[in-house]
Please model this.
Amino acid sequence: MAGLVSAPVSGLNGDVGVPGDKSISHRALMIGSMAVGETTIRGLLLGDDVLRTAAALEAMGVTIKRDADDLWRVWGVGVGGLQEPDNVLDLGNSGTGARLLMGLVATHPIQVQFTGDVSLRTRPMGRIATPLGQMGTQVIARDGDKMPLTVIGARMAMPIEYKLPVPSAQIKSAVLLAGLNTPGQTSVIETRPSRDHTELMLRHFGATLTVTDDAADRRVITLTGQPELESKDVIVPGDPSSAAFPLVAALITPDSEITIKNIGLNPLRIGLIDTLREMGANIDVTDARDQAGEPVADLIVRTSQLKGVTVPPERAPSMIDEYPILAIAAAAATGVTRMQGLAELRVKESDRLAAIADGLTACGIKVDIDGDDLIVTGSPNKIPGGAEIESRMDHRIAMSFLVMGMIAKDPVTIDDAEHIATSFPSFVPLMNEIGAKIGEQK
Ligand code: S3P
Model:
């Protein structure tokens, strides 16, 4: 796909509704597939990542239908009811789809081959294979821990207590989903809490799951295996990680005021909002409500003069996908922003630490990497821009630098826009509707 150019603008205005939460969409499909009877899902993200999860589940015997009005119906096969697919499952760009599905199939007596695009095939899968191996699953992977790989499901799965080596909702979720078809109690211990959509969704479908703090103040999540999950109705809130792009764009573009509707504000996802507020952002939360167990609200965002802050490492799990766009906000702030403890950014859809640093440098911003910290020196009102940025098959790098183009002196180009559709297919029209000038590269 061609590249895109984003030109400087002012005065973003209007209401925006961003697509459904990617994390919750994957989980609704997967857990709905393990229930008995018909689950309905409204607001499902129609991004490529989620559509691939749906196709993978269909390939394993789940019936999934999409109505004309985007109501999705999933006829679950019950815990343990997946069938062996007769082809490789291709999860495209989606680490979440691949890793959670590996967990889900791991305790079925079936063999499943997984692959993905060039980006996904470079990402580490050993972090999932290790706990699954302890449960009795065999994973045979290219180069030890890369896709393509084969999961040979455990016939007699064993419950484990697994301490996460890195804060990761994907590892936690893979173990819990494997625990579904495992007798006894499967536990995951996390030192730094990561997003808990799997826990909330499992409970929503009737599983017995407890969350306690142990003596060392770690979070212990325990699932009782082999539950009979009941079919449910799910409403997917707007994705805060997608809302982050219009949110930061409105904060840093002069004379802007926008309302972002229906955004999920799970406390384990709002590190970006906390950080932006510390930087001086004017963000009002209105109409806070509860939607199928997840907190949801509207956000009113106005142009604000931001100042640099230090973002501590313990905040990283609650904003792990938001560092690329925070780095753009930091470039527009006065002073220095230091983002600490970002090792996990090196294994996302791209090496995001390198991608952010190279992109900001190309746009004329001073940036340093110190160990796992990213340090951005802001340059309010005088960001040169004028660069072509490599999007590296990474949707969030592409969208972040298109936001950068909105406030730079000269337009910013991204070389390839294709991957924006993995999480936010309506990004360009939606941004242009509130006043951006994003068009195809000539
Ligand atoms: C996700 C967890 C995060 C995040 C990803 C979605 C999830 O990954 O980066 O985009 O839905 O569980 P890690 O768990 O690897 O940090």
Notes: DSSP finds twelve helices and 24 strands in the chain. Residues 240-252 form the longest helix (13 residues). Residues 62 and 101 are 13 Å apart (CA to CA).
